[in-house]
Write a structure and sequence with these properties.
The protein is an all-alpha fold. It is 39% helix and 0% strand. The protein has a domain of 50 residues. It is rod-shaped, with a radius of gyration of 29 Å. 0% of the residues are buried.
Length: 79
């Protein structure tokens, strides 16, 4: 003879919560525009060096800023 007890198992509840990342408002601002060059003739070396340095910094800054904003904006809110 066999005997067994049966217990009702409570329903399993799975809850997924997505937390949206926050970035500082400063990161949402566009990078500064290129500096204004002096009102004088520049040498070829000054022109090339300043242009290269300025544009490289501007592109790097804007790329980082845009990537940060896009990553946060793409985070699902769980709604």
């Amino acid at each position: 003879m066999a005997s067994a007890c049966s217990h009702d198992k409570p329903e399993t509840v799975v809850r997924t919560v997505t937390i949206r990342s926050e970035i500082p408002p400063e990161a949402r601002k566009a990078c500064d525009r290129p500096v204004v060059l002096p009102d004088r003739n520049l040498t070829s070396q000054e022109t090339a060096g300043n242009w290269n340095k300025d544009r490289t910094a501007l592109v790097a800054c804007e790329t980082r800023r845009a990537a940060a904003v896009a990553a946060v904006d793409a985070t699902p809110t769980g709604d």
